[in-house]
TrEMBL record:
Any matching Pfam family: Asp_Glu_race
Protein name, UniProt field: Glutamate racemase
UniProt keyword annotation of Transferase present: no
Protein source organism: Actinomadura logoneensis
Keywords: Isomerase
Entries under InterPro entries matching the protein: Asp/Glu/hydantoin_racemase, Asp/Glu_race, Asp/Glu_racemase_AS_1
Protein's GO biological process: peptidoglycan biosynthetic process
GO molecular function: glutamate racemase activity
Coiled-coil ranges from the UniProt annotation: none
Length: 254
């Protein structure tokens, strides 16, 4: 089984690790776009074009499924990607974890990029899944870029800015950009109130296996390979991405 993942940057590593945990025998293809990142400030048409280019590079490896591990690309490009690749290759989009975060009825903060924060897509999710819960939309400018940079000072500054923009009443925080899941411990530590964090990576892995009618076999032999494309060029995993990857999967990766 081969699973491809597309994103503007390193955010796809969280979903890739979630797939690797439930199917260590699956080959993974990671395709992101350092030449065009971040996608958020770009026009929707350009986001779609860049997501299609990344997906096209991954599709050359003949994957069994394609995960759009990016909220911005899901918002703007998912219909086009499905038109291009389905039904031959199932395309799975990212849905911010607003529903589980709102289930307890406590105030929720949704951290996301500026583009996603102000999107009709996110507003619709809040209306559908949290109609009676206080939901605070928190734009996090520069946080995804800081994750890609791996610079601790940039990360801390961007996290602190987002924490200050989050009302004190918030008990659950939705990590509405896949990049943010890579720094979950740092985000949690920055809050004096220790809110519970909700990501989408595990749900993406579960939905992908469901679409493929495949079981989770976490005890399978870890034979899965890793193939990386950066803006269409096949490369090794860059050092910063490698550090995130190893933190997500402490054991050696074949």
């Amino acid at each position: 089984m081969r699973i491809a993942l597309v994103d503007s940057g390193f955010g796809l590593l969280a979903a890739a690790a979630a797939v690797r945990r439930v199917r260590p025998d699956a080959d993974l293809v990671l395709s992101w776009d350092p030449d065009g990142a971040p996608w958020g400030p770009r026009p929707p048409e350009e986001i779609t074009d860049r997501a299609l280019a990344c997906a096209g590079a991954a599709a050359a490896t003949e994957p069994d499924a394609l995960i759009v591990a990016c909220n911005t690309a899901t918002v703007h490009a998912l219909p086009t990607l499905r038109l291009a690749f389905e039904p031959a290759v199932p395309v799975i989009g990212t849905v911010p974890a607003i529903k589980p975060a709102a289930a307890a009825g406590v105030p929720v903060g949704v951290w996301a990029t500026v583009a996603t924060t102000h999107s009709a897509y996110q507003a619709d999710l809040i209306r559908r899944f949290a109609p009676d819960v206080p939901v605070h939309r928190v734009a996090c400018p520069g946080l995804a870029d800081a994750v890609d940079s791996g610079d601790p000072r940039r990360l801390r500054a961007a996290i602190d800015t987002a924490v200050r923009a989050t009302p004190d009443e918030v008990k659950h925080v939705v990590l509405g950009c896949t990049h943010y899941e890579l720094i979950g411990p740092q985000i949690a530590a920055a809050f004096p109130s220790s809110p519970e964090l909700f990501g989408s990576a595990a749900a993406l892995a579960t939905q992908t296996l469901r679409r493929l009618d495949q079981p989770a076999t976490p005890d399978a032999a870890p034979t899965g390979t890793l193939t990386v494309f950066q803006s269409g060029r096949q490369t090794d995993l860059p050092p910063v991405a490698q550090r995130y990857w190893q933190s997500l999967l402490p054991s050696p990766v074949p």
